[in-house]
Amino acid sequence: MPPAEADMGYKVERKSLSTIDFESAEADRGIKMIAEKLSMRKIYIMTSIGFGSTAVVMLFVIYLLTDNYSAVLCGVFFILLLTAWFVFFIFLVRKKLTTFTSAICRNIDDMMAGKIDLQQNNEEETLFTKINHRLTRLYEVTQEHNRRIAKEKADLQELTSDLSHQVKMPIANLKMVNATLLEQNVPENRQRDFLLAMDGQLDKLDFLMQALIKISRLETGVITLKKKDCTVYETLAAALGGILLSAENKNIHVSVDCPVDLTVSHDRKWTTEALFNILDNAVKYTTNNGFIHVSVFCWEIYTKIDIADTGKGILESHQAEIFKRFYREAEVHGIEGIGIGLYLARKIITMQGGYIQVTSDVGKGSTFSIFLPNR
Q1: CB 247 within 8 A of CB 293
Q2: Own/partner pairs for 39-42, CB < 8 Å, 24+ apart?
């Protein structure tokens, strides 16, 4: 056969096979649609009619082949016996199916009412136990999802409440200063003082907004931390650069003990932010002529950065609270700050697989220990 004819035959055969597969799929789809439309009662009736018709035809064939009424009677007896077993089988299946669906519906109702016992232990591995196990898992996943939503809602309400509380005071101060300037004749030498006061409140609002934007971006995953090998010395230098002026104004001596070539995998930008927040707190709460010492230790798994100060110290009962958002001790409300720096610092370090510890003696100072994983 020439190649062209062979190719043509192959294409025809291939087309025929494709047509057969398509027709088979269409037939399966048609059977499935018919089965979905039929109720169980109609299926029973159709099966019974088919079985009865087959029995009549079979008896007729037996009579034609044997021409013996005894053989026909034996066939009738056999068919009746078979019918009895068939009816008994259908009854058992129907009963089992009814019990099964009732149990499933009861469990679903219990799940919706929140009454289901999740500690079920069925020894027999049946279809019901398999489905019930998956329903229980679905219930657990749904409950966990609901708990997560409730927690997020509570966190949002807490954030809204905290934000309202933090914004209320600067706005009230701005309104008061503005009203004073508008309604009263303020001498020019006093006007500058009022404007400086307004500038300070605006700076506080701007700082608050910037801090909240950073937190929201970190928590929602808009910003992801990108770790890479960087020297700890350069990260510390960048963080210290932000507090040296304020430390100098209070005559606070800052010392650093860090190996120059120590390299750790971390996000330099955000780790600098975390270290700056802790160092900034150390400057704020350390009195004039105090000391701040930063020391770095390379361990097998973690690199430890200690930031020790000679400030007022923190009560042991408050040491777990200071990392909460907007938390500030009552006795430090006169010091500038909004109580968000330590929260942000812990968030940044935790997202890199590290953690922060604090030890403190009231009146002697505090030491914040930052642990960064080496890998």
Answers
A1: no
A2: 40/94
From-to residues of CATH 1.10.287 in the chain:
158-220
3-state class of 325 per DSSP?
Answer: coil
Q: How many CB atoms lie within 10 A of CB 367?
A: 16
Phi first, then psi: give them for residue 323, nearest 5 degrees. Answer: -90, 0
Could you tell me the pTM of the whole model? 0.54
Side-chain-side CA neighbours of 41 within 13 Å: the count stands at 0
CATH superfamily placement of domain 228-373: Histidine kinase-like ATPase, C-terminal domain (3.30.565.10)
Residue intervals of the chain classified under CATH 3.30.565.10 are 228-373
Residue in this structure with the two tokens 């403190």, named with its chain if needed: 360
Q: How far apart are CA 148 and CA 143, in angstroms?
A: 9
Count CB-CB contacts under 10 A for residue 310.
20
* CATH numeric code, 158-220: 1.10.287
* Lookup result for tokens 């707190």: 281
pLDDT tens digits, 58-75 = 877 877 777 777 877 887
How far is 225 from 349, CA to CA, in rounded Å? 10
- Residue 69 to residue 38: CA distance in whole angstroms: 39
Give the per-residue pLDDT at 253. Answer: 94
pLDDT in tens, 265-315: 999 989 998 999 999 989 988 889 999 999 999 998 999 999 999 988 888
Residue-level pLDDT at 332: 53
